[in-house]
Each structure stands twice: as C-alpha cells, then as structure tokens.
Amino acid sequence: MKYLRSLLPVVAVLFAAPSAAIGAPAGIDPSQINAIYPGVEKLYIDLHQNPELAFQEKRTAATLVARLKALGYQVTSGVGGTGIVAILKNGPGPVVMLRTELDALPIEEKTNLPFASKAKTKSDAGDTFVSHMCGHDLHMAAWAGTAELMVKNRKLWHGTLMLVAQPAEEIISGASAMIRDGLFTRFPKPTYALGMHVDHALAAGVVGFHPGFFRAASTSLDVTVYGKGGHGAYPHRSIDPVVIAARVVLGVQTVVSRENNPLDPAVITVGSIHGGTAPNIIPDEVKLQLTVRSLDPEVHKRLLAGIAREAKGEALAANAPKDPLIETKAGTDAVYNDVALTQRMVAATRASLGADKVVEIPAQMGGEDFSQFGLAGVQAVLLHIGAIDAAKLETARKSGVPVPGIHTPQFAPEREPTLKAAIGAELAILLDLMKAS
Q: Is 217 helix (H, G, I), strand (E, B) or coil?
C-alpha cells in the first residue's frame, strides 16, 4: 500500500545541514530576480484585479499562455477545462513539473488595497464577489517569474521543464480533471513535481516544509434527512427533520471525540444547515453540508462510515420515513511529500536562501488536490512560502489576535519579499533537480 510510506520514521537528522552528496546548484544571482521583479509584480496586480472562479479561468489562462509563448515554451491550453501545460526542452535529463493554480474564491475582498478586487461573477449561488484571498495570484506570478529565469539560464540545467497551471484547486477538482485529460499521457510524465503555497503563519520569505503526510484528505458531503411535515403547533402529528438534523450535528462529533485516536488528526465540520420556510411549519426535509478531514486514509474511511451510521441511527430513532441521503460532492486525498525528495529540496533551498529561511512546519488540515499528482506516480513535494510581515506576526503572537489568514476578506500578503523568495526557492530546486554536469 502506498500509504504505508507514512509509517517510515522521519528523523530530524535528514533535515540538518545540506548533504554533500546532494550538492548545491549553481546559484542565480539575486540581481536577476530583482531585474524581472517589476514585471512579476505587474502581473500579480493584474491577476489580483481580475480573479475568476473554478473552471471559469479563461482570462487568467490566456494571460499566462501569452506570456509563456513569448518566452518560447510549447504551450497547450484547455487541458482539463482551462488548464495549461507549457513545455521547455533543454537536452537530455529529467522531466520536472512546477505547478500553480488558476482559480479564485467567492469572497468579497476587504483589504482596502488600491488594487483590491472588485470583480463579480455568476455562480451556482447567484451573483458573487470574487477575489484571490487564497494566494493563487501570487503563486502564478512567481511561477511566471521562474519560467522566465529558467529560459535565461539554460546553460545551468538539462532536461525538460513542465509548467502546469491547474484550474479549480479551490473545489479540489482541477488536478484530477487534468490527469483525466491526459496530463501524464499526452505530455511527458515528470519524475518530480513541485508546488508552492502561501502561508499566513510564516514570515514573508521563509519557506516551510513537512516530510510525509502534510495536507489533509478532504471530503465534502451533503446529508439530507427526511421527516413528515406539518403545523408547528402540532408536532406530535409530524416527524421533525430539524430535530433529527440537530441530533446528527451533535452525533457526528462523537465520531471524532469518542471513536478516533486523539493522536490521529480528524475534523468533521457541519458548515451549513438548510430546511424550512417559516417558524410555524415543520418541513419535510433538512439538508446538512459537511467537510471531513484527516491525514490517515484509514481514519478517513472510519470518519465517513461513522457519519453514515450516526445519520441513519438518528433517523431510525425518530421513526423517519426513510434513511438519510448521503452524497459525496467533492474530495481529494491527503498530500504526501516524498521524504527523500523533500530532503533534497530543503538542501537546495537552504543553499540558496540561507538555512534560517527554510524551516520545518506541522502538518495541516487544509485540503489540496496537489495530492493527485503524487498518487499518479510522480515524486511530489508541496512547500509553503511565508507571506506575512515578521513584525506583524510577532505582534499577533504577543496580543493573541491572529493576522488575517488565507480565505478571509482581509488577507494581504507582503508582495515583494514573498514573490522574490518563492521565485528563488523554485529556481534553486529546479536547477538542483536538473543541474548540468
């Protein structure tokens, strides 16, 4: 089983000083990053002001396609919907993939930045504001900057660089869509894959890593419980699905608190409840929407089974007319960072940015469909890049008032240090993996 890899001990000595056997790549002069930075920042601001929701990223994709074609990449658009694959061949050597994401979130931005998003669009829920409160605009800008410098430094590497711009990460669907559309059959299958994601708990310019299982498996469920509607004044003539739903909300929490080993991270959150039309009417049904998260695949199976059992049990106890309907709406597996590849990437990044700029961080319960690339047989590592001013983080630590995080209306990364460090880290890793002899 693939997941038995998680049982391997990950010892701290692996991540001490960079190994002499790995070696450091020929470095990129920081002046090169400084030279392209104005164009990278301009792209970032443009993407920030023009966000698009999952599988709607047509303008975003066109902007990146034009940029990559101008650099000389062989570009294919429309992969898995709106995804992009850009290939740059530079002699014999490994195929290495660098991924970014394209989509934004249905959130109204409230940063008060002069270039804040004011975009609106239509969604399944109606008209909605859209913004890059996820950091994907920063990921794309750094990705494009790295693409430019890899072209300018061809003498330092050999192999095939595969740039992937993935749609619909926010609804954890885009990676699978690209794979189904031939990402690893129509194009060279990479040996290695790298992804970067902003982190509001790290100082801007600091790279965070975690070997092994890093980001949680995530499953979204719709649970509809059924009753028998009637007048609110005569509950004995009805079967109240609101009460059943309330019991389900409380019952599923015991799956975590009383059935799961406390040392195995697990989360069940009921994010929405919908039912009824008036205070004096008992409805026929109530819908609950849940997110289920864990790091261990076996734990995840038990959580899902426990939710189904609790929902059916509460319906049976209330004499409901039929069992609840449980529908899986979206899901992705846990991100597994290949341990040996993580070691190598950490060594390369420390050699480039400095040992104090690369730190180990805990596993996190946020989902990421970057996991699908690893499950498809590619050695993959997802790293985090700090995006918050260090002084603000220290003030937050002392006051106990957290800084605005990703997926909040006030999230505003420190642009310059974050973008420059992301480009520097990506370049260091790519040049190490593809270094010329």
A: strand
